[in-house]
Design brief:
Length: 319
């Protein structure tokens, strides 16, 4: 029998991990999806006030021209503190669905890449695997998110439009048809896919760098949570910068219905010309705070919920 070496042992352990999801795929990916749904809905829901202010700055920079803190004060002065929770219903519901598809899908597509390429090839090309898996997962997640995000933006941009998720969703469907919910599908893909790709890749790379110095197996659960928080914070900053222009366009296109006969493409071109590069980064300060915070807590919550659900057999490709 050939002697065991650290390298051989590592390959064997990775092979076992890679095979584990196949043993109980539905249960395992269901738990990944539930953990993702919880971490995204809780974090996005909790940061609804920041999202309200960020959206107001994007849509009305003349009025909301004093940054994030000034924006909070103006919203409260003009509309009351309750206005900061505008759109909390569609935010929670939309990101519950999106989180399930995003995190569950990421784990699923990562495993499929390993099945297709083989573990060694996937490990050697893990950045490409992270990028492809996150992009595929986000595409399906956005199909679920888009109608609820369109409803949220309409409620935030037009406070008197409807009283909440159900009434706002129903009013848009009745008056504008199902197409209104997907008017922003192009911008949301343009925003969310680069956002998610950078988010997962930067998170994986930062965590990998930490664990190369401080092995994960030697860390306590609280230390691993701290790594998830720190890696997630850096990943969130990167993702916010990459996706900010599309986020601004998404807010603009969902603010009001298009003119009769006006295509989504022509609306996007017009909005892009009006904004310019500088205008597309309106509200970046609020969004850096928002995305950095929620991404940090997303990965921390996701890791802890996975452990509590027993879903600890996901594949790690780091060498």
């Amino acid at each position: 029998m050939a002697p065991s070496t650290p390298k051989v042992d590592a390959v064997v352990e990775k092979a076992k991990a890679a095979a584990a999801p196949e043993m109980s795929a539905a249960s395992l990916y269901g738990r990944f999806a539930l953990a993702g749904a919880i971490c995204c809905s809780v974090t996005h829901g909790a940061l609804t006030p920041v999202d309200v202010v960020k959206t107001r700055i994007q849509l009305d920079p003349v009025t909301y021209n004093n940054g994030m803190i000034g924006g909070f004060k103006k919203v409260v002065q003009n509309e009351g503190a309750g206005a900061l929770l505008t759109g909390v219903g569609p935010t929670f519901a939309g990101y519950f669905l999106q989180g399930a598809f995003k995190f569950g899908g990421y784990e699923f597509f990562k495993q499929q890449s390993i099945n297709l390429l083989g573990l060694e090839t996937a490990t050697n090309n893990r950045t490409a695997v992270y990028l492809a898996s996150s992009a595929a997962a986000e595409f399906f997640a956005d199909i679920a998110l888009c109608p609820l995000e369109a409803t949220r933006i309409r409620l935030v941009s037009q406070p008197t439009y409807a009283s909440g998720l159900i009434s706002g969703f129903g009013k848009m469907l009745k008056n504008e048809g199902i197409g209104a919910f997907y008017a922003g599908f192009g911008p949301i893909l343009f925003k969310q896919i680069p956002y998610t790709m950078s988010k997962f890749v930067v998170y994986e790379k930062v965590a990998e760098a930490v664990y190369s110095v401080y092995p994960k197996k030697d860390m306590s659960d609280s230390a691993q949570t701290a790594v998830n928080l720190g890696s997630g914070l850096i990943a969130g900053f990167a993702a916010a910068i990459v996706s900010q222009p599309a986020d601004t366009m998404l807010s603009k296109i969902n603010k009001t219905p298009g003119a009769p006969g006006e295509s989504t493409t022509s609306r996007l071109v017009k909005i892009a010309k009006e904004l310019g590069l500088k205008g597309s980064y309106t509200g970046i300060g609020a969004r850096l705070f928002m995305v950095g915070t929620l991404t940090a807590f997303q990965f921390a919550i996701y890791g802890d919920v996975k452990k509590s659900l027993g879903a600890t057999s996901g594949v790690e490709l780091a060498k």
